[in-house]
């Protein structure tokens, strides 16, 4: 291991820190797992546990649970969240993102001691302290046309130079100083973060061709317009007054909170030619529409570079697929050179949590450009959060979903997990299948269809999105509901027409495949029904809830249903899918299809 090792053994509370209190909700384990109790047992005044008529202990929501969940989410990753116990993990990236937002070791330590009910292992505190110290230990500075990698700890630098890959990327001069060029600026950061050493890149940026971006006070559509305070704050946190300490990083805001407008505020700050990369052609169109509606950019200033037309303009919007397209696995990327030769001052990565692996390699070459990532959740199912951290940049701004809900910037939402018995005709096939096939059999159970029909009738008159993973299942559902289906094969013009019909109310129900997970602007959608999904994808769950979070003109709340086959692998995966939203404070009500009369009631069975 490079650098100092943590001391062994538990540490007493430092001076000024409270001793553990038995009624606190948190247990810190030696493996850096944090166990947060959601409830506590009720006792009478004499310390005797209170019990119900059947002798079972009575419990209540722990009075510090909500506070603890909010504080821990700032520097720890939620791993699982059963009813009574939430499990978090302290990781290098979770701590480094916290430090990037202003946390220090004392702040993290203070939270842990304040919430702990048992002594905290010294190994955990020492490890966190090391991670915090390593953020900024290595810095990259520009010296003319080259870059110097500077380390404030000479011993650590010498140990890093024992790594062959580090030596390959750096040139060491006679004074022992390490030098890099533009080509190795990105790769060295990738190598070092894998060794546990994030690099603070202060190498600066090329300015790019100038492009003034100014907001309208009234949109083209005739509505008054102005930045919200948090959008302005997020753009300022990213830009950092144009200094080398900013200009890269990720803004985390929920769907419906105006990430696109926030990115425009960053464009205004940078004032340079901009490349915007997003997920699909529909999203490209929406970006262009928003830019022309809310800024004074002219139509010829904003180009679309897609399979339907290739226009390079001062603001060019394209897709990840276009950037990474190639004729074969061994051939080069067809469109990459077009983007390389332009003098971009800013690259915006929409839905940065979805970046495909080839884009990471390309982004490693773009370290001289300011880079902004946008996402509702930094969760990546492939574990590449460190790639986002070192190549796009650290988290620069984040607001809790529930805070934005309380302020009226996103809709109030109820989440319901609706459990449906597996159709009896599938029992034998399910029992004899592999674990992976069991998930699909359960997800596609035909027993879900009557439930979807019932939900659609209950919410008649509202705008309803039914979202699923498997095309055959969606086609069957389309026939039963007699409503349009949108998939990846649906032509873009037809998609846009169906979305327009949905917005106008002419078509109040749409069935959509995973193309509906992100980047569709349907502000009047109030109900989302998830009929199947991608195994335990936390970010997909968050994106699907996000489809209905835009605030409604009439102040209506939104409802998100996740329909799962009961007592199956799908139910197991549903718990993992809900993790991120549980961390944000969304409680799932558990309802069984045999008891559909649940609206307006406080269900006995729920999980947070």
Main attributes?
23 helices; alpha/beta; eight-stranded mixed β-sheet; 608 residues; single chain; 4 domains; MutS, DNA mismatch repair protein, domain I; Rossmann fold
Number of strands: 27
Structural category? alpha/beta
Task: Tell me the radius of gyration.
Answer: 26 Å
CATH class of the largest domain reads: Alpha Beta
CATH topology of the largest domain: Rossmann fold
Strand order of the largest sheet: 15-14-16-13-17-18-12-19
* Count of DSSP-assigned helices: 23
Weakly predicted, low-confidence segments: 4-13, 600-605
**What count of domains describes the coordinates?**
4
Going by CATH, the architecture of the largest domain would be 3-Layer(aba) Sandwich
* Overall outline: globular
The protein's oligomeric status is single chain
Q: Please report the distance between the alpha carbons of the first and last residues.
A: 38 Å
Percent strand: 15-25%
